[in-house]
Amino acid sequence: MSYDVVVIGAGFAGLAAARDLAKNGFDPVVLEGRDRVGGRSSTTTLAGVPVDLGGTFVEAEGAVFLTSNGLVDDRTWKELPPRLPAQGFYVLPGFYGTGPLGKVKTFSRGGSDISGAILARAASASLYENWTDVSGLLMADPRIVPDAAPMERVTYRELRELAYSGANVFHEEAILPCKQVGIPIRIANTNDPAAKGTLIVPENQAAERPIAGVAGRNGFCLLQIEKTLMNKERGFGRRVLGILETKGISYELSPSGIDSMCVVIDQKNFEPVENVVLQEIRNACDPDAIDVERNLALIATVGHGMSRRVGVSSRLSAAALETLAIVAYKQPVSRAQVAALRGVNVDGVVRLLEHRGYITPVGRASGPGQAVLYATTDAFLERLGLDRLEQLPPVEDLLPGPEALAELEEQMRPVSDV
To answer: Is the pTM of this model over 0.90?
Structure first.
């Protein structure tokens, strides 16, 4: 049994649209919502309406099942499809189903989106269209990027990554029922039907572009740990993450270098136990240095196969390229020396370049503080298509005149990292 159209109803307007579609040879199904306080008055009111218009009312209770954590129970796919009429249109109330205790249970949020996806799968629909008040999804938050470009096509996976990274997009739980059986989802604008909207598709139908969107979340801090020969010490990372686990702290990501380890964690959750965690790490790992950088944001650039497309990442950050150039021409060089030349803090950029394998620690300065010195790697030369550093263009072709160069050289004299 397969239906041509799934209509997300808007009261009697949705029913009227379904009736018109049926008259024109389509087999539409209609999803209708409950009232906002979670009662069943709207369901009761609408139960007799589809019959009057030549359709069928299908009760969600006993047909849609939810788990204790609000996800769709697999029993739904056994119970709901046989209740859907083979032809004509019908109404299925949204926002609720039967919980694990046999009682009515509502969705936590995004109920109409999820109900529509459930119905699309149960009806074996070829397309699930969700009509809303926006013309599809945007590649960035319009509050930050006012002229953000629209996403015309995005994969299930890309959309889920963007939602996890902070984007206010289509409810991620509404993707799953359609994703499991490969039903495309179209987000369209009720007030602008001619707009293309956004089509959410399986991985093998991804758009031919490197980036799907950019999203971000704030409220993070960075736990930075340094120890000489850390890479030779087995279990170092396990001990650090184990200490966080015992305090109920989860982490977002953990970039590391040969002598350093960083852990990105939620600042609000970390602050109450910060002093205890730092002391336990000192006791268990005996680091050379440990520090916390606060008030950070995570920015995610999401795109199908982006990691396999040469040049995408390099276009993302001019700061990283500037820092890499300084390391290449002045190596070995410390973070403080690079920061003095660029006039900004470069800790994060240095960690990124180290994590990607373009630079690596090669020793420590002899001055106060014994700052870590960095140099480029073979991977850096390979990416540029060079065999050795001597093949880099002469630095004189890239720097200002002699007077300005002398001033820069003075700034580059060894100083200690603080």
So the answer is: no
